[in-house]
Amino acid sequence: MTLILLNALLPIFVGLILGYIAGRRGVMDNLNVQNLIVLVMDFAIPCALFSTITSTSWPVLREQWETGVMIAVVFVASYAASYIWARKTLKMSISDASVLARTAGFPNSAAVALPLLTTAYGPSTPETAGSALIASYGVGAFSLAGSMLVLTKYF
Predict the structure, then answer these.
(1) CA distance readout (Å), 94 to 56, 97, 134, 137
(2) How many Cβ atoms sit within 10 Å of the Cβ of residue 139?
(3) Could you report the per-residue pLDDT of 64-98, keeping only the tens digit for each?
C-alpha cells in the first residue's frame, strides 16, 4: 500500500516542485495560468471521466459503491468541519462560513481523488470510474444544496 501511495503522490509533488522552480527561474509566469486551468478542468478531466465511465459496465460500477461512499463521507466531513470551525473559531457570519465550507468541502475528486485512484488502480478500472461517479454526484449535490440552504435562509 505504501508503494501504491508513493507512486500516486510522488508525481504530484514532483510536478509541484518543478512548477515552483520554473516560476522562480522565470521560465513560467502566472499570467496565463487560467488558460491551462480551463483546459484541464473543462476538457481533459471530463473527457477522462467520460471515457472511463463509458468503458465500464453498470454491474461493475455498482460494485464500487463502498469506495465512492467513503470518498463522499470524507468530503462531507470536511464540509461540516470547516463550517463549524469557521463559525466557532473564526467567528464568521453564517453566510461567510457557508461559502468557506463550500470552498473547503467542494468535491474536488477530479483534482485529488481521480488521479490517486487512476494511479492506484489504472485509468480504465471499475474502481476509478465508479468511485469518481458516486463521489462527484453525491458530494456535489450535498455541498451545493447545503450551502444554498444556509445562504438563502439567512439572506
Answers:
(1) 42, 5, 29, 25
(2) 25
(3) 777 777 777 777 888 888 889 889 988 988 878 87
Handedness of CA 115, 120, 126, 131 (dihedral sign): negative
Q: Output the nine-digit C-alpha cell for 153.
A: 435562509
Assign 93 to helix, strand or coil.
coil
Of 108, 109, 141, 128, residue with least CA distance to 54: 128
What radius of gyration, in Å, describes the C-alpha atoms of the chain? 18
**pTM score > 0.85 for this model?**
no
CA separation, residue 1 to residues 5, 86, 100, 127 (Å):
6, 34, 33, 16
- Dump pLDDT digits (tens) for 101-139: 777 766 555 555 566 666 666 665 655 555 565 566 566
- Measure the CA–CA gap between 50 and 62, rounded to whole angstroms: 16
Distance from C-alpha of 34 to C-alpha of 8, rounded to nearest angstrom: 25
Q: Which of 51, 99, 93 shows the shortest CA–CA distance to 79? A: 99
